[in-house]
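Section: Multi-chain targets

For targets with more than one molecule, the full set of components is provided together so that the structure can be written out for the assembly as a whole rather than chain by chain. Components appear in the order listed by the source. The example entry contains two components.
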Amino acid sequence: MATQTAPAPTDTDDDHAHPAHLEHHFVSSKQQFDSAKLGMWVFLITEILLFSGMFVAYAVFRQWNPEAFVAASSTLDQLWGTINTVVLLTSSLTVALAIHSIKQDKVKACVYYLLSTLGLAGIFMVIKYIEYTAKFEHGIYPGAAFDPHGVHYEHLAGMAAAPQFFSIYFVMTGIHGAHVIIGMLVIAAIAVMAWRGSFSSEWYTPVELTGLYWHLVDIVWIFLFPLMYLI
Amino acid sequence: MSTTTHDAPVADEVGPEEETNYLNHETSVWSWLTTKDHKRIGVLYCVSLALVFLAAGVLALLMRAELSGSGETIMGNNTYNQVFTMHGILMVFLFLVPSIPAILGNFVLPLQIGAKDVAFPKLNLASWYVYMAGAILTITALLTGGVDTGWTFYTPYSSTTGGGVLWMTAAIFVAGFASIFTGINFIVTIHKMRAPGMTWNRLPLFIWGLYATSIVQVLATPVIGITMMLLILEQTLQIGIFDPALGGDPVLFQHFFWFYSHPAVYIMILPAFGILSELIATFSRSRIFGYRAIALSSVAIAMLGFLVWGHHMFVSGQSAISSIVFSLITYLIGIPSGIKVFNWVATLYKGSIWLQTPMLYALSFLFLFTIGGFTGIMVGVLAVDVQLHDTYYVVGHFHYVMMGGSVVALLGGMHYWWPKITGRMYNETLGKIAAGLVFLGFNLTFFPQLVLGSRGMPRRYANYSERFTDLHQLSTYGSWVLGAGLFLILGYALWSLAYGEEAPANPWGATTLEWTNVAAIPDHHNFERTPLVTRGPYDFHLADEVFGGGDGAALGDDVPRMPEPAPDAPSEDSAETARA
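Its structure, encoded as tokens over all components, is:
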């Protein structure tokens, strides 16, 4: 029984200097890190379910209106879509490298990788902006404002379910875009903190969690891209 | 045995005045609003939810008053529509869904597993603020014209009526995050923050209930979030997802809505099951029968609960095959629920039953929940549902589950943990009277509704034909008895805060850590020392020799580092126990 008591923390531990990042209610840095990571994973599950509602709506309407969905989907620009996929996948690589760097105490490399992630995310949003405005110019709006005109879009006007496709497209990519912007804000904050030397191989939990979040943003896009642009 | 109090980690006798506890170590309002202490957040939630329950309860009394006679009595039809809608929304989204996890879960969970706090205290506080933001949006909805869609927001009515619907759906979207935050916090806390020796099979069953609840909260709530978001976009941008006029599908809304809202019923009832296991074990002073069966049946209900949403839509035009499958899985839910009820009854068998107020609620629960469960199976039967759908039978059924189940369990739990939360005892006699009033009033209110529904009285109507008058009036009288019981509880609860007798550390002789290893009013950091757990949660049967008589001899330390032997019921009540 005496051996079992060993892991129990006692107040005498206070004599030793706690790591600055260790919150009082955790026993050890490892427990704190594991908790944070598990919490992030559970949060990512909620995100997946949030998007899954929209994926279900997409599947249902596609099942009912295959022709309209194919016609509407083919007006999306596959080139921009592909470039954006490559951009986002690369940004996932850089954020993974940022975590890898901070684990080896390479603070500067970590900052640079975070900044390149930020830059790639910016490129993604700019391309998204170009795509959106190209659609708006031809009257392709979500909802009631849908009024397609121009050579490539006129045939959509007669299709009953074409507005559904673009409503779902704008809602899904819009909410995904909102996640990208939130991610950019977080990555920028993390980069500043890293620059100030807040992280080391001892403690890099926020970098790790941001990376996990960013991979989620990436993986949602990996499903959005083929469903919206390719099929 | 009286040794319990002597061995409590903090020496009560030395000078209670000088000691700090979670209530008095900081007292400013600001310290409460910025607290990261799970116990204080539980109390904050308790106050907020009590106000919501009061508001929604008064609405219910007004509704019953309107129905005390056919024709218009105290309010017009439109007002009535708004009143029942607000009653439903407040009770479901702002009261029942957060209730037990946010109040008792927050307060008790870290104490029961021997942790200093939940894993993410800031997220926990954020959860309360997000909840309050949801409440403010609800009030905004009321001020901007109110809502009369019913709590289910069925499209196309909800996507085409203006007024407060937009604000109300936003409120539910926002309040959902409070629920998600609590769920994430509990899952991580239970996985990572357990004290040494607190294995999964030694978790108190309340924790198992909360764990299953959290899984449902995390998996279901995002879906209502996106549903409400799409409804808002449909109102503002006219995107056509749910509204048939825009090319959308109203049945799709029902699928989305019930994918959350049916599991939400389990968010309400699973923690109630957890409370019930605690109450039954403690007040029959015997080890819970079938610990693993009860624990795992909670998880089974959580999982199966995701596969039955279609039973709300038997008459919405879904395919016959889906209806049959949903109906079958609905029957399956009866199995784990039945396992629980039988195990609780088996725990009572040959136990030393101690009829204190919390136990009265536990016994009420067994009775009321069983009726709620069986009537649920009834409406899960395809052919029967066609007759009973949208009648008072359904209203009666879900009130037996939500109020007879969840609220009665919450009341039992609040009485049980009241001494730990406030450090005061409530008045036992008044408590028993109130429990009796609640039980009587509840049955008087809702049993007539089951009869009304089976005779064809539709729900959500402000008027009815003459032949229903007697039963409606009976139901209204019942609501007064029920209201009297609940106001009596409010009265003596407030009284006990000021004048109640000071509570000992373990007034019930319970065996879980929050009673055995925590001071009468918990310390700010919960435990003097992190406890070392060496036994199961309800080992009332273990004799002193297993624990070395509780003299701490095995440790050579003046502060015991392990839980006390399971204590007997307090001696002053032993006569009563023997009688029972």
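Chain B touches chain A through 53 residues (CB under 8 Å).
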